[in-house]
Design a protein that fits this description.
By secondary structure, the chain is an all-alpha fold. It contains four helices and no strands.
């Protein structure tokens, strides 16, 4: 293994893609009933589709434009991500938190 110094642009792109992943995952849970699947199985299904999405090939500028075209601000997506990670942490700690889309799917 080699030590790699990531470019700032690469870090920004990774962060933006993660924000979009969270946005899409939350919508995916709404659009795709579990049909007896566990939350983890549903996420695995989502992720297999997510990793092939064109967003991974986009530049930072294109991703930022897509976010804007979708009608979101970076601040809104950041808040959604914070809520997502807070809920995930609480779930792992077996602490109940209030979320607007509580559907008992693990985060």
């Amino acid at each position: 293994m080699a030590i790699k110094f990531p470019k700032k642009d690469d870090k920004v792109k990774t962060h933006l893609i993660d924000l979009l992943r969270i946005l899409c995952w939350n919508q995916y849970k709404i659009d795709n009933p579990k049909n007896g699947m566990t939350g983890l199985a549903l996420y695995e299904q989502f992720f297999s589709e997510w990793i092939t999405n064109e967003v991974h090939q986009m530049t930072v500028a294109k991703i930022e434009k897509m976010i804007s075209d979708l009608g979101y601000t970076l601040e809104e997506l950041e808040q959604d991500a914070k809520d997502y990670y807070d809920a995930k942490k609480a779930y792992k700690s077996n602490v109940k938190v209030e979320v607007s889309h509580d559907d008992n799917i693990p985060y």
